[in-house]
Write a structure and sequence with these properties.
Pfam family, one (chains A, B, C, D): Thiamine_BP
Oligomer: homotetramer
Largest sheet of chain A: 4 strands, antiparallel
Largest interface: A-D, 35 and 35 residues
CATH architecture of chain A: 2-Layer Sandwich
Protein name (chains A, B, C, D): MTH1187 family thiamine-binding protein
Family (chains A, B, C, D): Belongs to the UPF0045 family.
Amino acid sequence: MKVIADLCVIPLGVGLSVSAYVAECERVLAEAGLTHELHAYGTNIEGEWDAVMAAVKMCHERVHAMGAERISTSLKLGTRLDRNQSLQDKIDSVRSKLD
Amino acid sequence: MKVIADLCVIPLGVGLSVSAYVAECERVLAEAGLTHELHAYGTNIEGEWDAVMAAVKMCHERVHAMGAERISTSLKLGTRLDRNQSLQDKIDSVRSKLD
Amino acid sequence: MKVIADLCVIPLGVGLSVSAYVAECERVLAEAGLTHELHAYGTNIEGEWDAVMAAVKMCHERVHAMGAERISTSLKLGTRLDRNQSLQDKIDSVRSKLD
Amino acid sequence: MKVIADLCVIPLGVGLSVSAYVAECERVLAEAGLTHELHAYGTNIEGEWDAVMAAVKMCHERVHAMGAERISTSLKLGTRLDRNQSLQDKIDSVRSKLD
């Protein structure tokens, strides 16, 4: 089962700047070989369900290992059987209707 | 790693009423033996990370099997190392400050 | 336009315990006269769109005033034209399918 | 109060393809003069709180007017007092830590 996900990891108790923790999650996704695209309030991810979920778990483990004792993550998960759709397909589909 | 989760599964292309699909997810969580509590915009879940995530995957599989060809899920995931906290502990912690 | 909302306010830079800030948001909702129900990962709210949104803004203002310099909120917003549905109706609708 | 938001509008009861409804929301944001950036699972928005919230309400009104009788929206709202940060600043802040 393929999934399009959107991941937003928020470490608590580490002060106001969280970008170092988000950067660590980007490294996790890159190491996992998953297609991913950072945006201003999270990261889009595309891949097989188990691979994406293993990476999300690794993000929590690595962010905790960096010293964040509490994490609150928001994760969106989109699956569909009717057709195979990439991150770029989803954006193109909306943009084609704006022309 | 223990997690407190909040799960909201939205099936698309099945009309306006989605409660039958949400009920199926409740059955999945019960069968998995996970502590869970339905609210008006999702379901709180408490358990080990891998068990919770296996149940979330099963929810997608079962809702697709019911005929929903597309699903968009919102999942919140809270982990903390500083202490063990149950669903009820979280609610009690807020309520104690309202007295 | 009536809305069923789910609000989860996360203050950053204030340490690991956030329940005092969540409690302040509960007070804001009560003062606004909105039907609301706390759960373990947020609060369900029912009301007119503008009243609910004014309360969410007030939550940010009050949590900032308590000393949290950064806030990240997750808000779900459900509107429907086909029928009027309360928080309790939504829960009852799922539970009736579990019997 | 300035806000960085992430908006994901899901119309129900309109079939599997929702891109026409997302495109309408993009038009609403453009008409409102708000800085916004579409991604594969939502749209980042930057602006004053009241202007952003008025646009989100307009999105619901316009998507309902297109024939979607039910909508479920996920909205993230980030506010901070310590400094002024744009959508691009947030992305640059993470990327600078990946070099």
